[in-house]
Amino acid sequence: MSKSFSPDMAAYLQSLPAVDDVDCARGRISYADAFKRHVVAGLALGYRPSEMFRTAGLDPRIIGEKRVERAVSHWRHDWDLRGGRFVENAFAKQSPFDLLAQRVDSLEARVASLEDTLTTKGMVG
User: DSSP letters of the chain?
Assistant: First the structure.
């Protein structure tokens, strides 16, 4: 059985857009569909589940790392059963393709910076 939430913690969790409902007695959190889609899309782009939960105000150290792992596992499975379709959501104002393009741009900038550093140090000719 999951750890129960205090009334204050439940109120905080329910105030988050990522959360639909909190069952204090049973220690269960029901997440918003938009948040579930956001997490699955983020996984496809290389983001870590704990980062996405933390950004949404759901620090895994507070709600439990195992809870995050189980939720993400279920959502991935559900995603696969639905044929991998993205639906617009409130957490990702941009399309998954725009997010992927930003991630690629960021990685290319990091590679260029590392190449400059290596060239400056004479390690690359």
Answer: -PPPPPHHHHHHHHTSTTEEEEETTTTEEEEPHHHHHHHHHHHHTT--HHHHHHHTT--HHHH-HHHHHHHHHHHHHHHHHTTS-----SS-SS-HHHHHHHHHHHHHHHHHHHHHHHHHTTS--
